[in-house]
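queue> pop job 88
queue> type: inverse folding (structure -> sequence)
queue> payload:
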């Protein structure tokens, strides 16, 4: 699996927006990390143990980005495959239709949620699966397509199994004592 890193430079509105978003996310992450890593015997708080006992971590890519994983982050390909009509009774399923069916079956059986990107990511990746659905209203509910089957499944079906929990180790505290001391 490859990961892309994007750098944002400049003095325009886009750069200011990215600084604002990054600052907000960083602040939230810092506070959450401080509380989760804190052991405060005076308040009977053990953040690492609490997180290990009460959080249900799932594998991120499979849990929220499976469509992108199955299409190598090619939004146009995902859109095209799910826009295909499903074969009528007695018809052979083409290779592309098999891929469309595979995406739907995988998402409905293995993935816990979907993140259809059509926000800030469009500044760096012009075509995403989510943006194509947004730009083509109703394309996700065309009767007889894999997209319609996916939407129907998301709205009406429950998985037989909850996705597996990622096993994490108990981490040592990042701070012992009072949070603000």
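queue> result:
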């Amino acid at each position: 699996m490859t990961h892309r890193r994007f750098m944002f430079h400049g003095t325009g509105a886009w750069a200011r927006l990215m600084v604002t978003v990054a600052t907000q996310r960083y602040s939230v992450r810092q506070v959450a990390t401080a509380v989760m890593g804190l052991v405060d015997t005076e308040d009977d708080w053990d953040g690492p143990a609490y997180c290990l006992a009460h959080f249900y971590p799932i594998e991120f890519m499979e849990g929220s980005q499976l469509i992108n994983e199955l299409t190598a982050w090619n939004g146009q390909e995902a859109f095209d495959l799910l826009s295909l009509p499903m074969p009528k009774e007695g018809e052979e399923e083409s290779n592309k239709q098999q891929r469309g069916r595979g995406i739907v079956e995988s998402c409905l059986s293995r993935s816990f949620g979907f993140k259809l990107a059509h926000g800030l990511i469009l500044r760096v990746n012009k075509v995403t699966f989510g943006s194509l659905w947004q730009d083509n209203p109703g394309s996700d509910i065309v009767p007889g397509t894999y997209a319609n089957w996916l939407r129907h499944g998301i709205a009406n079906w429950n998985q037989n199994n909850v996705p597996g929990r990622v096993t994490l180790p108990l981490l040592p505290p990042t701070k012992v004592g009072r949070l603000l001391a």
